[in-house]
Design a protein that fits this description.
heterotrimer, A mainly alpha (409), B alpha+beta (536), C alpha/beta (417), A: 409 residues, mainly alpha, two-stranded antiparallel sheet, 19 helices, flat, disordered C terminus, B: 536 residues, alpha+beta, 2 domains, three-stranded antiparallel beta sheet, 20 strands, 15% strand
């Protein structure tokens, strides 16, 4: 018995082939991790574009803000139109800023990998550049002016004029930063493995949606006057569904956009946090475990499952939400077909149904049914069956050498 | 694999008990709220003789969308286009759920037995103020509070008039929508006493006249006649401003003087004859005199049957909201509204013959005026968003499930629409978030902790005892005795001199024989000497 | 069970739906519905399939301070994946993880197995049990967590260390107490021939004297002489007071090490060794020789803990009748807090036993953990010396064993006071 016990495999590795390990350096290059990060980035971009196209473009987007500032100051802002997307229409206004946001986020992630000393130097360099940009020309002009005229004086108007450009530049950059905050923070979080940044990206998006929702609440919107009118408002009454599955129309295209936002937020959150979760686990393993092929193999298993579940379960979440939203029509036709009662007619025409109340009741009912499915349908057996079909592994199960151990919970 | 024997019966039983208690509680709550009734009537979605399906069908045929409201008028706040929406309350048969809410002064109240709660009334008032049209058809029921909000009061006692239909009975009373009362000539209304609608038929004022009256004589096809299709005859619109509306079991309307009315313009559109009387004490006898007293409690004279409340005197829907109050809940029931269909037995076999009346014309004219588009090019078509909402929330259902569903609707709407309930809901949400934050803990991460807890301390209390002179002396004497191989008895038998000789050290000998006080330093040196003693 | 994340997602979902309804906002409502749908969909997969766990140890018993290699084999016996499963092997706190980790997160395919290997250092003697194996399954998005354990235990005995003491006995200044194996004229396990007797079922075949069989026609077996000088009696003090000191240096720990070492030494010389442990109660292992006895003694010593306050006299009173005459007796005790020691030792000496008192200096152990005032320490030490002198006066060999002293070094100190 004693001789059965082997030491961890890392000790016995003698071959020249370099075994894969769970060191962060190698793990970060593993395809599953990279794929998860790419999925997260794609979800982030998708979410951002969807939010922007639903709520921002054409109503409160940055180009409108820039053009109103430009008309206010009577001059062009220093940021080029190619950069801001001014002059373009629709969602294309956001393409260049989006790319720049991704690059900035990526650079911030790169910085996060440097040593603290380098990081500090980079930050310092950035601040000094900013200060130079801001007051450099003023100080240079002013000082040289004083030196040439041998006289101490306050800067004159011409010199103060030099402040205008940098101030406007920084203001425009700040505005762009606020608009791109989810993208910058999100990409920094995904590639720089920062939970905080990811939380910022999600939090800012949700905050935006929340504030927008409150501002477009009719009571408040009417108080806002003209400004309120500028906000894109979602219809609170629901029209006929146009998008569906298998020929059954379930949701309107507007609702579909909203579902897409919700699901993309979830995809972004789960894959971005998932990467960090696995890397954290690997990081905390002792050195010998990092080299142990058993741990490496199980890490692969976990990552593969995560990838599959990201597609499977989050896709199912979207479908379930869609079906839940369209479920009222099914329910009503069922009721009116079976009872034909006054109530069915009255409910199917009810204002509550078009005003989300009925929708919510039926959606929650549908989701409750789905939750009950967990007990009604032997999922475990179904999963098991599909696995055995796919892998034909039932034969691979060896006969146990020892008696089985019963579980106690 | 779960074995049957592994199932924890205790847990299973507890769960079952818990859920059954919850179910009983839920049923108890529902049984309080759910009000089943087989006398469901006045519903626009049922086709009994006393329902209003014919009216709804006519509206639909007009090209106007019909909707029901099954929970609470609180939802009127969410209507996007009140201008083109008409809200119909026909017969309020049940009270609202008495849930706490804020009243006008910001205090918490529980809705009284008035059919609609203060916040619901407020929602209706807001709806009308935003340009909506409301039709309140009611007699002795629960609509009083709505009326009072607009400066009108339902008398609430049955009214008897001489203009009843003698073929039927005195409950069926004619109402002529005109300023002067009409009278009877035998079993028919005296045509000489008939006049036209004061506002609608007066085409001299384009703003206040009925659009169909203005279109009178216009040659259109039936398809293009739009909201005036019920006036269409022989290729043109033939508007007739006379309205003989048949009512059943009516009461009277009173104007409340000096009320703070959101719609300042109140106009009486129909009255009773001058010989009408109201059975105030409800004893079925009419005892009247010039002055109302205990002996003669009943009232006599002319009473109001229809009141129109508008924002402007023109009562044009484009100028603001309007409310029509009628002192009867049943003018639109299938039996009266669709009297020909009723006679043909469409709503069940019957022997009763309802006389021809203008109920349909009158009702559809109200809808037509409210729904017609204000866009000139569209002619007589209803406006694009035109919608008629029937308030079904105060009609009892005849199935538990249906009424429960409506109750859930009501609770949802109440909790997301009423100020106090929203506050409570926010509080509940906040508390549940806090609860999750505080109570819900994830299992700790596993970690092996190498720790050895060991208590290896001696009795520290004995240390001072061992630095006492007496103890030191005792230890020293034992050492002396041991060193010399003496037994206890031998040692005790020794004289002092022998002991001194045995010790052979004056300081220690003195210490051993003469008990006296020693300072700390002295004690220390004594102990040192004792330690060294005997090592020769 | 729902995790915190799931609970938050759920309450958040409900809150968003309700607030969305309050302010007639579809986005909030749909976000809320999506969150609830997320939980619902994820609740479909829960728990894990049948998992078999098997633990193998490199040894069932080992000496204090040695390393133990553990291997845990987890096999998925079901037809489905286990999903995210955390496996944790519960090991006693007294053992230190030297390398590897006693846990793993895994996701086993049907039939797949994973090995967790780790090395434990066992710094304390005793009887230990490794196990049970805790399992925690989560779904991928950490919304549900279920915990259970496999009741699979592996027992292990950690013996006290054995110190080399031969040299001490060879170089001891004292007259040779024990002269080594001489034949006793009693039958038993030994090397020299004693007598011939008739075969009794159960006798080993190798003892059959075939010549005698050929001669007499009856099965005869050789009986051997018992090889032993004598029986050695070890009396160990495991009273509560013996715990004083640090976890690794205290009178009891020293006593077990010395008893184990002495037993090893004498058993190797084919002597019989008996062991009496007294504290809360008296446990006695009658004299015997051989590996089996060695194992018994080590096991008994592994399980000793400091408890009770039984006086030595009570032990000698009950045992001395069973001691074979003149045999040496080792009393291993700090002699602290037991007034009967002199009398008991005198009694044993009086019965003709050669008594050696091996006395760990408990006051010096106490000093390792408590600040004893200098003067009190000196007086306590004097008192202890008096006590040992008394014992020596009774005719026993007394060894004052200081904490930092090796056993063999201490044994060489045997002297009469």
């Amino acid at each position: 018995m004693a001789e059965d016990v082997q030491v961890q495999s890392d000790v016995t590795i003698t071959g020249s082939a370099k075994a894969r390990t769970l060191h962060l350096k190698t793990l970060r290059k593993q395809w599953q991790i990279i794929t998860l990060q790419i999925i997260a980035t794609a979800a982030l971009i998708g979410m951002y574009l969807e939010v922007v196209s639903t709520y921002v473009v054409g109503t409160i987007d940055h180009t409108i803000l820039f053009s109103s500032i430009e008309s206010l100051i009577g001059d062009d802002l220093p940021l080029g139109d190619w950069f801001t997307g001014e002059g373009r229409t629709g969602l294309s206004r956001f393409f260049v800023p989006l790319a720049i946001g991704l690059i900035v986020g990526g650079l911030m992630a790169l910085v996060a990998y440097q040593t603290p000393k380098t990081q500090q130097r980079l930050k310092l360099g950035f601040i000094i550049t900013l200060i130079t940009l801001l007051v450099g020309r003023l100080i240079l002009g002013w000082l040289t002016g004083m030196i040439f005229s041998f006289d101490i004086r306050l800067p004159d108007d011409g010199e103060l004029q030099t402040l205008e450009w940098p101030l406007l530049m920084i203001m425009s950059l700040l505005i762009m930063f606020v608009y791109l905050l989810p993208i910058i923070m999100g990409s920094r979080g995904i590639w720089g493995l920062s939970k905080k940044s990811i939380a910022w990206a999600i939090g800012f998006t949700l905050l935006f949606l929340g504030i927008h929702a409150i501002l477009t609440f009719p009571l408040i919107k009417s108080q806002l006057g003209d400004y309120g009118g500028a906000l894109a408002t979602l219809e609170s009454q629901i029209s006929q569904p146009t998008i569906g599955l298998f020929g059954v129309k379930l949701v309107t295209s507007e609702q579909f956009g909203l579902i897409l936002i919700a699901v993309l937020i979830l995809v972004f959150q789960e894959s971005a946090f998932g990467v960090i979760k696995y890397l954290e686990y690997a990081f905390r393993l002792p050195e010998s475990c990092k080299r142990d092929p058993e741990y490496v193999k199980q890490m692969d298993n976990m990552l593969n499952t995560h990838l599959m579940h990201t597609f499977g379960f989050l896709g199912l979440t979207g479908v379930a939400t869609m079906v839940a939203l369209g479920f009222h029509s099914v329910l009503l036709s069922l009721v009116s077909d079976t009872t034909g009662s006054q109530w069915a007619g009255q409910v199917s025409e009810s204002i509550e149904l078009s005003l989300t109340y009925g929708l919510v009741i039926s959606a929650v009912m549908f989701l409750s049914f789905m939750a009950l499915f967990r007990y009604l349908i032997p999922w475990q057996r179904i999963w098991g069956f599909t696995y055995s079909l796919r892998n034909n592994t039932s034969s691979a199960v060896e006969k146990p050498e020892k008696e089985f151990i019963e579980f106690q919970t | 694999m779960v074995e049957w024997r592994d199932i924890n019966y205790r847990r299973f039983g507890l769960q079952a008990a818990f859920w059954s208690v919850m179910l009983v509680l839920l049923l108890m709550i529902l049984s309080n709220f759910v009000n089943l009734s087989n006398t469901n009537q006045l519903s626009a979605y049922d086709d009994d003789w006393n329902d209003m399906s014919a009216f709804r069908q006519d509206i639909k045929d007009m090209g106007v969308e019909t909707r029901s409201l099954v929970s609470s008028p609180l939802l009127l706040a969410d209507i996007e286009d009140p201008r083109n929406t008409t809200y119909v309350v026909a017969g309020v048969e049940r009270d609202t759920l008495s849930l706490p809410q804020f009243d006008d002064d910001g205090f918490i109240t529980i809705a009284s037995d008035d059919g609609y709660s203060p916040s619901e009334i407020e929602a209706i008032v807001t709806f009308v103020e935003n340009g909506g049209t409301a039709i309140i058809l009611e007699d002795y029921g629960f609509a009083g509070t709505i009326a009072e909000a607009f400066g009108v009061r339902y008398n609430g006692y049955q009214l008897f008039d001489t203009t009843y239909v003698p073929e039927l009975n005195f409950n069926y009373v004619w109402m002529c929508v005109q300023t002067t009362p009409c009278s009877m000539n035998g079993s028919q209304i005296d045509t000489d006493s008939l006049s036209t609608h004061e506002r609608w038929a007066d085409t001299s004022s384009a703003l206040s006249a009925h659009p169909c009256a203005i279109a009178d004589g216009q040659v259109v096809s039936l398809e293009d006649s739009g909201v005036c299709s019920h006036h269409w005859a022989d290729g043109e619109i033939a508007y007739n401003g006379t309205y003989r509306v048949l009512l059943n079991n009516i009461t009277a309307l009173e104007l409340i003087p000096n009320s703070d009315n959101p719609l300042p313009e109140l106009a009486i559109r129909a009255v009773t004859s001058n010989e009408a009387s109201i059975d105030v004490n409800g004893d079925g006898k009419l005892v009247v005199s010039a002055v109302q007293s205990e002996e003669t409690p009943d009232l006599y004279g002319r009473f109001n049957l229809t009141v129109e409340a508008c924002a402007k005197s023109t009562c044009n829907p484009d100028d603001g909201g309007r409310v029509f109050f009628v002192a009867d809940g049943s003018p639109l029931i299938n039996a009266i509204y669709d009297y020909s269909g009723f006679a043909e037995g469409e709503y069940g076999p019957t022997d009763t013959e309802i006389p021809a009346n203008d109920n349909r014309k009158w009702a559809l004219d109200i809808i037509a005026e409210a729904m017609m588009t204000s866009i000139q090019e569209d002619g007589l078509e209803p406006s694009e968003n035109a919608m008629v909402i029937f308030d079904e929330s105060r009609h009892p259902q005849n199935a538990v499930l249906a009424d429960s569903y409506n109750t859930i609707y009501f609770l949802l709407v109440y909790f997301t629409g009423e100020g106090l309930a929203m506050l409570v809901l926010f509080l509940i949400l906040f508390i549940s978030f806090e609860a999750v934050l505080i109570r819900k803990k994830d299992p700790d991460n596993w970690r092996h902790v190498f720790s050895i807890i060991y208590y290896g301390f001696g009795d520290a209390n004995r240390y001072p005892y061992y630095s006492k002179v007496e103890k030191i002396r005792q230890v020293f004497l034992s050492k002396v005795r041991n060193q010399n191989g003496l037994t206890r008895e031998e040692f005790h038998a020794m004289s002092a001199r022998e002991l001194v000789a045995l010790i052979n050290d004056p300081t220690l000998a003195k210490f051993a024989i003469e008990p006296s006080k020693y300072s700390l330093e002295q004690t220390v040196s004594i102990v040192k000497r004792v330690k060294a003693w005997g090592r020769r | 069970m729902w995790t915190r994340k799931a609970a938050f997602t759920f309450t958040g979902g409900i809150a968003l739906i309700l607030i969305g309804m309050m302010i007639s906002n579809n986005q909030m409502m749909i976000l809320g519905l999506a969150l609830i749908a997320f939980i619902v969909v994820n609740s479909w997969i829960s728990g894990h399939g049948d998992v078999e766990v098997q633990r193998t140890l490199s040894a069932d018993n080992l000496y204090k301070g040695d390393d133990l290699y553990v291997e845990l084999l987890i096999t998925n016996r079901s037809n489905r994946k286990t999903q995210l499963l955390e496996v944790y092997d519960n090991i006693p706190h007294e053992m230190k993880l030297r390398s590897g980790l006693n846990q793993m997160r895994l996701n086993l395919s049907p039939g797949e197995s994973a090995r967790i290997r780790y090395v434990l250092r066992c710094p304390l003697r005793g009887h230990y049990s490794i196990g049970p194996v805790s399992l925690r399954s989560r779904n991928t998005f950490n919304l549900g967590v279920e915990e259970m354990f496999v009741d699979h235990h592996s027992d292990i005995v950690i013996f006290p260390q054995i110190k080399e003491v031969e040299e001490a006995f060879l170089r001891s200044r004292t007259p040779k107490m024990y002269t080594g194996a001489t034949t006793l004229r009693t039958p038993g396990q030994g090397s020299e021939f004693y007598s011939l007797r008739e075969y009794v079922p159960g006798d080993p075949f190798k003892n059959i004297n075939w010549k005698a069989y050929a001669r007499t026609g009856e099965l005869m077996v050789n009986e051997k002489c018992r090889d032993a000088v004598t029986d050695l009696y070890l009396l160990i003090d495991s009273r509560d007071i013996a715990r004083i000191g640090t976890v690794l240096k205290n009178p009891l720990e020293m006593s077990t090490v010395s008893a184990a070492s002495l037993a090893a030494f004498f058993l190797k010389r084919r002597d019989s060794v008996a062991l009496g442990i007294y504290g809360e109660k008296l446990s006695y292992l009658p004299p015997d020789t051989g590996d089996k006895q060695y194992f018994k003694i080590l096991s008994a010593l592994a399980g000793v803990s400091a408890k009770g306050e039984m006086p030595l006299q009570a032990v000698t009173n009950s045992l001395s009748g069973r001691f074979s005459r003149g045999s040496p007796v080792f009393v291993i005790s700090s002699c602290e807090g037991d007034g009967t020691v002199p009398a008991a030792v005198r009694d044993l000496v009086g019965r003709g036993h050669e008594v050696t008192v091996l006395s760990p200096s408990s006051i010096d152990f106490e000093r390792l953990v408590s600040r004893i005032p200098r003067m009190s320490y000196e007086v306590l030490k004097l008192e202890r010396q008096n006590r040992l002198t008394t014992l020596a006066g009774s005719g026993a060999q007394v060894i004052d064993w200081m904490p930092d002293m090796d056993l063999s070094q201490a044994l060489m100190q045997v002297r009469g006071y």
